[in-house]
Structures are given as C-alpha cells and as structure tokens.
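Form 7-S
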Amino acid sequence: MNVSTGGRRLRSRGATAALVCAIVLSPGPGYAAPGDPDPNTGQSIEDIRDQLDGLYREAEVATEAYNAANEKATEQEKRLTTLRKDLTRAEKRVKDLHALAGAAARTQYRGGDLAATGIQLLLGDHPESALDEASQARQAMRGLVNVSETQKTARQELGEQTEAATKELRKLKSSRADKAAAKQKIEKKIATAERIEAGLEEEQTRRLAQLEKERAKEAEARWTESGGSSGGSAGKGRGKAQRPGGGTQVSGAAGKAVDFAMAQIGKPYVWGAVGPSSYDCSGLTSAAWAAAGHPIPRTSQAQWGGLTRVSLSSARPGDLIIYYNDATHVGMYIGGGQIVHAPRPGRSITTAPAASMPVLGVVRPGV
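Output:
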C-alpha cells in the first residue's frame, strides 16, 4: 500500500467516526419528562395543566352563579306575572266601585233605589246568588253606606299591588344583570382556556393526557385512604352486582337516578344546560333525580344546602358528592369509588374517581 492510498483510508475512517459522533451527540426529538419546562413557553406540563384547571374552575364558579341567577329570574318572572294579574283585578275593582258610587249618587239625587243586583255582584262574596228578594235588596241598600270605605280599601290594595310589582321588577332586572355578568365571565374564561389548548403541540397534548391518567390513579388511591365508600349501603360493596360501565347495581329511586345519569355518558358538557342533549354538572344530577321522581334543587350549591347530608364513608349509589369549598361542582356516586359527572367545557359526561377533586361532602336526595 502506498502512502497516498493509506492517507485516503485514514481520512475516510476519520470522517466516518466524526459522522457517528455527530449522530450520537446531536439532540433528538423533544421527549421531555412531564415536569420539564416546555422549550417554547417556559412552562412545565404541570403548570399548563394547573392553568387550564384554574380557568375551567373559574368558569364553573361563574356557571353556578349564572344558574342561580337564572333560577331566581325564572321565579321572579312567575311572581311578577301573578302580581300583574292581581294588579289588573285591583284596578278593575277600583274602577267598578267608582262607577257604583256614581250610580248611587245619581239614584239618591233622583230619589230612587239603586239596583240591588249590581251592588251584590260587586260587593258580595257570592255573585252567583244575585239579589232576588226585597229583604236582600234592603240589605244591599244599607251596604251603600260602605261604598266609600270599600273604595278606600280597594285603592289601598291597588297601591300595595303596584308597589309589590315594582319591587319584583327591580329584583328581576338585578337577577338578569347578574346572569349577564356571569355569562360574560364564563365565555371569557372558556375562550382563554380553549386558546391555550389550541396552541399546544401534539406532544404536549399527549403529555397532558398522560398526566391526567396519573392523577386519576392517585385519586383512586386517595378515595380508599379517605375512608370513602366502595359501593353499596353502609359502604360495603362486596356481593353487589356491577353495572355495565362501572359502579354498583342499586334499585329504587336511586337506581333510576343512576341509570339515567349513566345513560347520558358521551353527551357534551354545556354550561347552563339541563338536557336532554347536553348538561352541566348540576344540570345532570338534577335531571337524573327528576327522572327518578324526586326533583331536587338545580344548582350544586342549593343541592348541598338543601339535601340530607351523609358521611363520606356511608356514600351509596345515587348520592351526590359535592366538591370544592364553595360547592361549585357535583357528581353522582355510582359505587366502586367512582362518580358519573359532567366535567367541564370541551369534555363529555363520563365516569371518574370520586376523589379526583377536593370533596366537600355527600348529600342524599329522596330522603
């Protein structure tokens, strides 16, 4: 081998070694650990998850405020309708009494008698028994003395009805303003969260999903550690039949409520919705118990405040688990440490570990 040939071989071997080193040392695709900061945003995947959770939590708090304002406005509208009907009747009574007083004055001026039937129809408790006897006519004539006082009472009633209707209208306007403000806040928070999620890369989305799975496993363990019920009555799930999709079979009204809620799995969460095509968290639980023949309050806060509370360890299928200190989320316990619930915007009704959120307490409808 001559010197020139040997030199070429050495140079070739050196180039190959350099190429191998370059491949080994060059950075590959970014498979960062879950806690590593994202190179584009500087946020870890946990930070992104917490940010999204915070936005959706604020949207859910606003949703409960919206639902409460909506319920209040609905009741106020019914009350206002009744008051307006009462007001119309009071106005008519004052008008009729005014006409009657005028007729009485004219009759007395002419020296005649006022038709007794007209008086009884207006002043009597039973207009169907119109005056048909002279004695009744004389009694009605004596009643003319009280026409002025009756007019005064009717006008007072009219004033009270007018004031009540005016106050109720002010309350209704206030509730509608609260409802509009809550709606604006909901839409703003959801839009911000959706922008963040839309901007995530495929790998970030995958890592978020993995993080949620890990948190779900941790939640299952927490439920057991917290002494939560595993299934049926008195917290004992052994020997209970399992329903398709998870949870424990149960009969009666609770069974009907659970069956209804489970049948909604896959339908989308929509804030303010009570079915049948979509629900929010308390919309699902209230619709389920209504289907079971036991209507309950519409909002999770009202459910927490108005239903019978039971211990966590005695939770049984059909009970409602209320979450967060402000009682702004609710799920229905289905046994086996699981709930069925409407999670948040962008998600569908699903099952989840009962301890996947901070538990405030448990309430039992139908008792």
